[in-house]
């Protein structure tokens, strides 16, 4: 699996429930747990080597994220993926992704700018021809989350992480039909360098171009 060297959370400082949440969220986003699939707490806990309680707590959080849904007397299921939601999700992202990119460019610390520059170098160094689409989408998530974090607004970060996750689930349905995944992921190097250079106008423009371009690519194959 691709790794940016910057984990989303430090395993040593997070609770079992937090770790379970991140692990299950990743499986839902990348469709390792398929849409509408029943989720059996005991089986998932055994697979991930967590107790039932952390898994149960994680699933409650994931329900708020619209990644799982629970029904009385029926159980818990991965939410379905409706491509019609792409328009609603994109409406939020086209407005907020440029805000996050511009804010990061204007407010990031020198240490964060250095980190984003390294991430840009890592993105340029990717052997996109030798990496499967799933791994490219994981890299896409890594970069987006780094940008959201760099903006320094936890409320904005929470909203964008949630909707980027939902968008990624939709994208993953069509990965085998999207010939431009590598190109879109490669665009992140420009975005990261614009933020590192404190160029808010460029960062916002690139972020908007990226979000609209990916949506258009998906719509072209639906």
Task: Explain the layout of strands and helices.
Layout: H1 16-29, E1 38-39, H2 41-48, H3 52-64, E2 68-71, E3 75-78, H4 85-107, H5 110-124, H6 133-150, H7 154-173, H8 181-186, H9 188-196, H10 200-221
Antiparallel strand pairs: 1-3, 2-3
Helix pairs in contact: 1-3, 2-3, 4-6, 4-7, 4-9, 4-10, 5-6, 5-9, 6-7, 9-10
Please, could you describe this protein's structure?
This protein has 222 residues and is mainly α. Helices cover 67% and strands 5% of the residues. The protein has helices at residues 16-29, 41-48, 52-64, 85-107, 110-124, 133-150, 154-173, 181-186, 188-196, 200-221, and strands at residues 38-39, 68-71, 75-78. The protein has a three-stranded antiparallel β-sheet with strand order 1-3-2. Residues 1-7 have low confidence and may be disordered.
Brief characterization of the structure:
The chain is mainly alpha-helical and 222 residues long. The protein has helices spanning 16-29, 41-48, 52-64, 85-107, 110-124, 133-150, 154-173, 181-186, 188-196, 200-221, and strands spanning 38-39, 68-71, 75-78.
Main features:
222 residues, disordered N terminus, mainly alpha, 3-stranded antiparallel beta sheet, 3 strands, 10 helices, 5% strand
Shape descriptor: globular
Largest sheet: 3 strands, antiparallel
As laid out across the biggest beta sheet, the strand order is: 1-3-2
- Spans of at least 5 consecutive residues whose pLDDT stays below 50 are 1-7
Order of helices and strands: HEHHEEHHHHHHH
Query: How widely separated are the two ends?
Result: 28 Å
Which structural class should the secondary elements be placed in?
Answer: mainly alpha
Counted beta strands: 3
Strand % is: under 5%
Helix content: 55-70%
Radius of gyration (Å): 17 Å
Instruction: Count every helix, treating DSSP H or I runs of 4 or more residues as helices.
Output: 10
- In round numbers, the mean pLDDT is 90
């Amino acid at each position: 699996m691709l790794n940016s060297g910057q984990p989303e959370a430090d395993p040593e400082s997070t609770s079992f429930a937090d770790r379970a949440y991140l692990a299950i969220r990743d499986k839902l986003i990348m469709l390792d747990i398929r849409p509408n699939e029943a989720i059996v707490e005991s089986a998932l806990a055994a697979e991930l080597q967590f107790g039932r309680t952390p898994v149960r707590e994680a699933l409650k959080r994931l329900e708020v994220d619209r990644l799982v849904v629970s029904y009385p007397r029926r159980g818990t299921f991965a939410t379905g993926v409706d491509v019609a939601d792409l328009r609603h999700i994109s409406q939020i992202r086209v407005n907020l992704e440029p805000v996050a990119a511009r804010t990061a460019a204007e407010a990031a610390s020198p240490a964060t700018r250095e980190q984003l520059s390294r991430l840009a170098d890592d993105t340029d160094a990717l052997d996109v021809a030798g990496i499967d689409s799933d791994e490219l989408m994981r890299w896409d998530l890594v970069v987006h989350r780094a940008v959201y974090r760099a903006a320094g607004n936890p409320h904005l970060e929470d909203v964008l992480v949630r909707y980027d996750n939902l968008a990624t689930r939709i994208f993953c349905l069509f990965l085998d039909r999207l010939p431009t995944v590598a190109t879109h992921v490669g665009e992140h190097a420009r975005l990261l360098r614009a933020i590192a250079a404190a160029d808010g106008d460029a960062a916002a423009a690139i972020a908007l171009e990226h979000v609209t371009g990916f949506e258009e690519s998906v719509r072209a194959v639906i």
